[in-house]
Write a structure and sequence with these properties.
Rossmann fold; 4-stranded parallel beta sheet
């Protein structure tokens, strides 16, 4: 068997990749997942081959400080259960080397698989843009035998993207319509803007991100920068947090500083009630099929903003 063309036993170390496997109709081939994989529900009972060293219940500031300390000392954020991984006998492992904060380091995966009895393809999924996200889906599809179900799933997603594109193009053809500025905050203490695929997703949805850059990592953002950019629409989706937790983190940050509270309420997006909170994992943080849901939702928000300006 060529493992690059007909993989049957898949371990996914990325939540977005796990979602792609299921979207492509290959859930029955998954034999192991990461500690973060939680969607769809049918995967949650699978063996988990990774563990995080960071307590997710800590505050945003505490988590950031801990991650920084691990980075400064070159200490891995995650542990890989090599014994369990080997026992699952994978012939395909889905991983990435784009961000050590997002998943197990690829070097650890390579070391773990050096002496496997069976052939095993390690597929790196380094999405930095929306095009890359769709390419990742096709790479998984190729590595698993290019099934008809997978082809149909990819075609459906392509059609949904095309519909958003057509709708946005028609809307922007009107003389009175301008692209609103739209910024995603993906961490609140310290403040982070988005990067990688999100600024492009915003562009495809009819907006323009005045801060984040497609293909570039997210970065620390000062409140002065945010005030200067003063976006028309603000999206808030903390990495790895649901909507309720994100709202509570924002409340805590503003409550801790009356000065920041004044800055926040001075932003035009806040004054105009164009601030939208999201579950980060479900909508923005993972390069998987649900990004198409996000694209459609952001396009709706942009269109609603435009109507409010009429």
């Amino acid at each position: 068997m060529n493992p690059a063309s007909d993989a049957k036993r898949i371990i996914s170390l990325l939540p977005g990749a796990t979602e792609w496997v299921c979207q492509l109709g290959l859930a029955d081939r998954l034999v192991g997942i990461s500690h973060e994989c939680d969607f769809p529900d049918l995967v949650t009972g699978l063996p988990r081959v990774t563990r995080s060293k960071v307590d997710a219940s800590l505050s945003s500031r505490e988590i950031d400080d801990l991650v920084t300390s691990f980075s400064d000392t070159r200490t891995p954020l995650y542990e890989l259960n090599e014994t369990l991984l080997r026992s699952l006998k994978p012939d395909l492992i889905l991983t990435q080397n784009l961000c050590n904060v997002c998943a197990v380091n690829e070097r650890d995966v390579l070391r773990c698989t050096e002496n496997l009895e069976q052939k095993c393809l390690i597929l790196d999924l380094p999405a930095r843009s929306m095009e890359d996200v769709m390419t990742d889906a096709r790479e998984i599809w190729k590595a698993t035998g290019t099934t008809r179900v997978g082809a149909s799933a990819i075609e459906t997603l392509d059609q949904r993207v095309a519909r958003v594109h057509d709708t946005v193009t028609r809307r922007l053809s009107c003389d009175r319509v301008n692209r609103p500025s739209v910024t995603l905050l993906e961490w609140l203490d310290p403040l982070y803007c988005s990067g990688h695929w999100t600024p492009q997703l915003i562009e495809w949805a009819g907006g323009i991100d005045p801060i984040g850059q497609t293909g570039k990592p997210s970065r620390v953002l000062t409140w002065e920068e945010l005030t200067k950019a003063n976006p028309n629409i603000l999206l808030v989706a903390c990495c790895g947090m649901d909507e309720e937790r994100t709202r509570s983190e924002m409340d805590a940050v503003l409550a801790a500083s009356p000065k920041l509270d004044d800055v926040w309420h001075g932003l035009q997006a806040v004054r105009g009630q164009h601030v939208h909170f999201f579950d980060g994992s479900a909508f923005f943080n993972r390069p998987g099929p649900r990004l198409i849901d996000t694209l459609e939702k952001v396009a709706e928000l942009v269109a609603a903003w435009d109507e409010s300006q009429a």
